[in-house]
Amino acid sequence: MSQSMNDFAPKVEILSTNANSLVVGKGVHIKGEIHNCELLKLEGIIEGSVEDVSNLSVESGGTFDGSAIVGYAKVSGVLNGRIVVKDRLTITTTGKVEGKINYGELEIGRGGTLNGRVKRNTIMSKHTQPIKTNTVEQEKSG
Fold it and tell me: Cβ–Cβ contacts within 10 Å for residue 67, how many?
């Protein structure tokens, strides 16, 4: 059976139409800084700093070690260091987060772990809308 050249072509995952996306694949190890990224999908290893990243996804088998300032983070792998998540930090059932962690909202799946100095952000980011509730005084006046 003969194989065409297309059988050996690398498979590329299209994440979005935004050019500001980066995938760090399995087996890839990066040391340094990453800035101004809409989506950072981590399947390999990053040691360093990440700033101005809207969405960070640490996949199962992926590891981040360093400092990060992100809008949203979903962790199925390992996230270590000084981490600021302006909006929602989601730790899946396989996720492990350790270090000094600041977050807006937190969701942890059964089996996921969170260790270290953890603090909820008191200032909401531009992405988060405040929850409107009726107070007793508002109900009396209305």
Answer: 16
Q: pLDDT per residue over 12-66, tens digit each?
A: 343 444 568 999 999 999 999 999 999 999 999 999 999 999 999 999 999 999 9
Select from 97, 93, 96 the least CA-distant residue to 118: 97
Distance between CA atoms of 113 and 100, rounded to whole angstroms? 14
- The pTM score is 0.74
Measured between alpha carbons, how far is residue 96 from residues 14, 112, 122 in Å?
A: 26, 6, 24
Quick check: 84 and 70 in contact, CB under 8 A? yes
What number of other Cβ atoms are within 10 A of residue 26's Cβ? 11
Residue 69 is which amino acid?
A: I
